[in-house]
Amino acid sequence: MQELRVYIETSVWSHVFHDETPDFQRATVEFLKQAKERVVVPYVSTLVLDEVARADPRRREQILKEIAGVRPILLRRSQQADDLAGRYVQAGVLPPSDELDALHVAIATVC
Predict the structure, then answer these.
(1) Domain locations in the chain?
(2) What is the tens place of the pLDDT at every residue in 49-91?
(3) 4 within 8 A of 31, measured Cβ to Cβ
């Protein structure tokens, strides 16, 4: 059976701390537990780390601890991913206001 590889975008990490949506928080924690146990193979990109670096310092440290605990494989941003993200936006797959989301999808696609 082929392993299931998952790209974990920045917002997923922050949902661990969303106390105001306990069901969603619980599901996120369970998903990350599966990633820690390698039921799924977790990936993040340098873009995720860049976005986390801009978070509030307290939240940043919490998220970085979560990421470290999961030990995801790190994907690097590339020219190929940048080009594909631009194509996603040009084709209307994602609007220009979601350019960073298009880049997350592109990185996960080409790497």
Answers:
(1) 1-76, 78-111
(2) 999 999 999 999 999 999 999 999 999 999 999 999 999 999 9
(3) no
